[in-house]
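Quick log. Single chain, no ligands specified.
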Amino acid sequence: MKDIEVKDLVFSYGKDEILNKVSFDLNKGDFLTIQGENGSGKSTLIKLILKDLKKKSGQIKLFDQNIEDFDDYTKIGYVPQVNDANKLAFPVTGKEFVVLNLYKKFNIFNRPNKKCYKKVHDIFEILNIENLLNVPFNQLSGGQAQKVMIARAMVNDPKILLLDEPTVGVDEKSKRDFLKLLAHLNDKHKISILMISHEMDVVREFSKREIRLKNGRIVDA
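-> predicted structure:
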């Protein structure tokens, strides 16, 4: 079964073509990295899968369903760049930040219940980051913040993790620890992973498969 199918995908901003006839699959249990320089169309591809942008032509299928008809995004966990994650204007702990992603399960007063917090504790335990539960999110290091972002993505039991340049701005040790965690989730918890990165020197060690985008086209698969 294919978790994601992309065929002949085209996207442009006005006359500026960003993606041109891009095709690839993410198989169930895969760990696929899409590499490419800035401006190659990598992040645009993630935004199209998340329906933050609308394709010009081509096809995107999620779990064998056309993206236009797909609405169960609890199946897809999204982890943005750590710099985006750190732009929180108000102080919340790691636990509070993650539980917000369970908003559909909040009680009638629109507050998280005990089951929500139990779920959050369980995810932090699985990821071995219980020490970050009560640390203010805006005080976390880059590597710690990325692990909490994974917890936020994982709390809804997704089938796929989408990651957009998750190792940017993270020191080498934290980068390797983070990638080891992804490999563990992929191998032991059978989470399919699609990761955007240009840091292939370290990422290649953990990824199962890679493709390369250049000027909006796949040039190496």
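The two ends are 20 Å apart (CA to CA).
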